[in-house]
Amino acid sequence: MYIGINMGYIATLFTPAQEIEFAQEAERLGYRSLWVGEPYGNDAATVLAALAACTKRIQIGAGIFAIPGRTAAMTAQTAATLDWLSNGRLLMGLGPSGTQVSEGWHGVPFAKPLLRTREYVEVIRMILRRDKPLEYHGETIRLPLPGTEGKPLRLIMHPVRPAVPILLAALGPKNIELCGEIADGWLPFWFAPEHAATLRAPLEAGARAAGRDPSAIDVMVNVIVHIDDDLARARNTMRPRLALYVGGMGSKENNFYKTLVSSYGYGDIAEQVQELYLSGRKAEAAALLPDELVDMVTLCGPAERIAERLHAYQAAGAHTVIPMFETSSFAERMSQLQAFVDIAKRSGCVTLSLD
User: Could you tell me if 26 and 34 are in contact, meaning their C-beta atoms sit under 8 angstroms apart?
Assistant: First the structure.
């Protein structure tokens, strides 16, 4: 099992120079991959280009490119360019986002997300292969656009790799099944090792239906981390972000994280957390989250406790654990970066990527 690092919401707390220092230190310490997302702040591609320029061997991951924000062709161009800039180090995470971001930010209807993801991935792979000019006659993507002067085109540049690894950020069973069918990897969030068999079942079913070996699909788990000798304080550090996801992500009717927490057996609590959060009582919502749930979906507390917990992720089939540190200062963030490597070494189940 390897470790990556999720750089969180870039351009919100730290300077560009600090982000570069953080990335270079992660590479030096043996983290295998760097991940950057793009909710509705920074875009991921620009940051990944900067990270590619200041690092040498660490993989750079889009975690994730939001499908509604780009055409499939633009994503393929971006992937080919980033892979070229990084000399073949790109990991391309994709996801349909949610209703509020898709429709409220990008102005793109959140319709048929499964079909759209399938067709989007197919088009990207066709473009990167460059085996013929692009023609695609799907339901959500049609190229060239019928009834226009558009003509089939071929990517001008020659990609470093004709098949950049594609990973899907999937939460619901149908999305996870699609991931098993078509993707090179799965990027789960709020993954509970105790529920691994249930979570992985659709992934394995999708892979088998497509004639694939489920073990060949990389499972790269994003997890919020806070290392602190005081377990109670560490849990309390986690609670506000968990409350945000359960209570405030998506709409009241469509919150994927609330649905996931409910599947873990916390449906009643999830309802109460959402009601409190949406009514502005955020501190009460956070306080309502039980210790057991915090422990299940995060890595927090003393070093020896987290080291032991890493074995649970390995047993659950994780190929990579990707921490996102819950910190407020750059000094603390750098300290946690080093401390997590020390924990990984202590666990004995992590391979570091060192020269």
Answer: yes
| Joined tokens for residue 215 | 């073990």
Q: What is the enclosing helix (H) or strand (E) of 79?
A: helix 72-85
State the pLDDT at residue 98: 86
Give dist(CA 306, CA 310) in Å, integer. 6
Is 2-226+302-347 CATH 3.20.20.30?
yes
Q: How far apart are CA 34 and CA 3, in angstroms?
A: 10
What local confidence, expressed as pLDDT, does residue 59 receive?
Answer: 98
Contact 93/63 with Cβ under 8 angstroms? yes
How far is it, in rounded angstroms, from Cα 211 to Cα 119?
19
* CB neighbourhood size of 145 (10 A): 9
142-143 and 136-137 as β-strands: parallel, antiparallel, unpaired?
A: antiparallel
pLDDT tens track for 298-329: 999 999 999 999 999 999 999 999 999 999 89
User: Could you state, in order of their start, the residue ranges of all structural domains in the chain?
Assistant: 2-226+302-347, 230-298
pTM (global) more than 0.90: yes
Question: Residue 125: phi, psi to the nearest 5?
Answer: -65, -40
Instruction: Spell out, as residue ranges, where the chain has pLDDT lower than 50.
Output: none
CA 226, 9, 241 angle in degrees (round to 5)?
Answer: 45
Collapsing DSSP states into helix, strand and coil, what is residue 258? helix
C-alpha 10/C-alpha 27 separation (Å) is 18
Q: What pLDDT was estimated at residue 148?
A: 96
- Cα–Cα–Cα angle for 340, 341, 342, rounded to 5 degrees: 90
User: Which residues are 62's β-sheet partners?
Assistant: 36, 92
> What pLDDT shows up at residue 251?
78
Of 204, 219, 188, 208, the residue nearest 314 (C-alpha): 219
Find out whether 32 and 58 touch, Cβ atoms under 8 Å.
yes
* Contact (CB, 8 A) for 81 and 65: no
Closest CA to 317 of 222, 223, 219, 203: 219
DSSP letter assigned to residue 189: B
**DSSP symbol at 30:** T
The per-residue pLDDT for 62 is 97
| Single-letter amino acid, residue 12 | T
